[in-house]
Write a structure and sequence with these properties.
The chain is α/β, with parallel strands linked by helices. The chain is about 40% helix and about 10% strand. It is elongated, with a radius of gyration of 20 Å.
Length: about 280
Amino acid sequence: MNIQWYPGHMTKAKRMMQENIKLIDIVIELIDARIPFSSKNPDIDELAKNKYRLLLLNKSDLADDTVTSKWEEYYKAKGFFVAKINARLGNGMKGIDAIVQEACKEKIERDRKRGIINRPIRAMIVGIPNVGKSTFINSYARKACTKVGNKPGVTKGKQWIKLGKNIELLDTPGILWPKFDDEQVGLRLGFIGSINDEILNTTDIACELIKFIHDNYCNTLTERYNIVENEDAADQLSAIAEKRACIKKGGELDLDKAASLVLDDFRSGKLGRISLECPDER
């Protein structure tokens, strides 16, 4: 299943980032803790070279904690500052100021030697669509600064946000990259809702997710939907449709409705803490 999605506004958003990067001290990139590799935009590495880098593994409450810890060490070994957070509930947010100060300590010291005191650190917030940037900013600022939504494309333009005297944040729209070389990357982005559902075949996507969960988190589907698990994902989706009364007029199973149910349950954490990729595979 070869999924590609790069709407025109992302080209404009990337150009805006390139124009503003010279103003920035540190790039704070949010990635989804369930897919820390597939949700990390490779274009950001080129954009943010020579800048301090902080990676935030957001939605860590939805991911397998053992796997997330491995990803944390994986990215630290590559030179990133890294933290696990759940921006929606505020978990891990209190330590971010200290990490930003630590990451930028050389810059702060250079300013001090030049007689520049208390100049705010300027941070650019980046990430793919629907990774939780707006929720993170509102939690970090402790007030509603940006519009929040559970679908990609809520943030449309740049926005500067002051956090006291120490930090200024530049919010940016979520962007993907023009082509996914690995079709599994597109699939995983579809699972978590970073690609517009309207361009996806939700039934096929749900079957792929069901297969992964059966293979890696056995009995999860049984516990949630009270079905007998087997290797046939399409059969499993039909069983879920029957159990959850996803029925069209005339008595036919509504597989599209059942597929949306499975995807919603996964995205909201109702299927438990699931990680879709592991650093051992890199």
